[in-house]
Design a protein that fits this description.
By secondary structure, the protein is of the alpha/beta class. The protein has one domain: Luciferase-like domain (TIM Barrel), CATH 3.20.20. It is about 50% helix and about 15% strand. It has 14 helices and 9 strands. An 8-stranded parallel β-barrel has the order 1-2-3-4-5-6-7-9, surrounded by 9 helices. Helix 3 links the parallel strand 3 and strand 4.
Length: about 325
């Protein structure tokens, strides 16, 4: 049986309010638990039109209170914006409330525009440069292990510590995860980088002495599954066209309907971009998607597949997750 999980970017469709989009994220998490997914992660974005979640920690407390067993976490907390101690406090609070269920996915992207970055943090580029030190400090606070005396404790200390993950799309992130002996989530859905090579380097250089754990990888893939291949490609058009709209500086109102997406004219260059994006996605009926995900998991040596699904309709999204689960879980 394959391990499957969900990454939710909490997108807003054109027929939704922000409140409705956040409620939809709760429904996705509850459905993921029902279908047998291993974990549900929600992403952090700042002042990006069409994306609802700027504070994963708040959504996780809301979702945790209305689910029972599925692991929940951030995908990712953008550490350069924050002090490691505060991130540890928040994570330990969540782990105390929801024992054995909390993941801390750590990333280093800005998560928004330059203006937002300046509003959130001082000297962001320096904080990115200092990311290895910040991650080390976070690990000390989370696991309550210090080489010096009189270090503050990130209270409360939960019975089961949250599980720290490093997320990324580059060799640098994979090398840092390996050095720290952390599980690694590679975001294939958002990069053209050589994921197989990067994951292989992570596995080969993993520091098993650090936390006495083995290397563990999640591969995050964009996937849309429907009862028929044709219907799946129709549903995918909303996400694909929305990406084109955002590249144009448009799309602030959110994910367009299939009807609207099919009516938008594209340049030759944009049509080529859509084809490239489709090639980086898994789209099809249940049998096709299941076969592709099995092949990808084997090809990348991944321990787990995490799925991102963006459709205009919440019902289509839930059906996609359900069909995939029925084939692979």
């Amino acid at each position: 049986m394959m391990k499957l999980s969900i990454l939710d970017q909490s997108p807003i469709s054109t027929n939704q309010t922000v409140h409705q989009a956040l409620q939809a994220s709760l429904t996705v998490a509850q459905s993921a638990e029902k279908y047998g997914y291993t974990r549900y992660w929600i992403a952090e974005h700042h002042d990006l039109g069409g994306l609802a979640c700027s504070a994963p920690e708040i959504m996780l407390s809301y979702i945790g209170a209305q689910t029972k067993s599925i692991r929940i976490g951030s995908g990712a907390i953008l550490l350069p914006h924050y002090k490691p101690y505060k991130v540890a406090e928040i994570s330990n609070m969540l782990a105390t409330l929801f024992p054995g269920r909390i993941d801390i996915g750590i990333g280093r992207a800005p998560g928004g525009s330059a203006e937002v970055t300046n509003a959130l943090s001082t000297n962001f580029l320096q904080q990115v440069y200092d990311m290895p030190k910040s991650l080390e400090a976070l690990l000390h606070y989370v696991y309550n292990v210090f080489s010096e005396e009189n270090k503050p404790v990130a209270a409360p200390i939960p019975d089961i510590a949250p599980h720290v993950w490093l997320l990324g799309t580059s060799k640098k992130s994979a090398q840092l995860a390996a050095k720290q002996g952390l599980p690694y989530a590679f975001g294939q859905f958002m990069t053209d980088n050589d994921g197989r090579g990067i994951i292989n380097e992570y596995i080969q250089t993993f520091n098993i002495q650090k936390h006495n754990e083995k290397p563990y990888t999640i591969l995050t893939i964009s996937a849309i599954c429907a009862e028929t291949t044709e219907k799946a490609f129709e549903q995918a058009s909303s996400s694909l066209i929305w990406s084109i709209q955002k590249a144009r500086g448009e799309g602030q109102e959110g994910v367009p309907s299939i009807e609207k997406a099919t009516k938008i004219s594209l340049s030759l260059e944009e049509k080529d971009t859509v084809k490239k994006m489709q090639a980086n996605m898994v789209i099809g009926n249940r049998k096709e998607v299941a076969e592709k995900l099995r092949d990808i998991k084997k090809m990348y040596q991944a321990d787990e597949i995490m799925i991102v699904t963006i459709t205009h309709s919440l019902e289509d999204k839930l059906k996609s997750y359900e069909l995939i689960a029925n084939e692979l879980l």
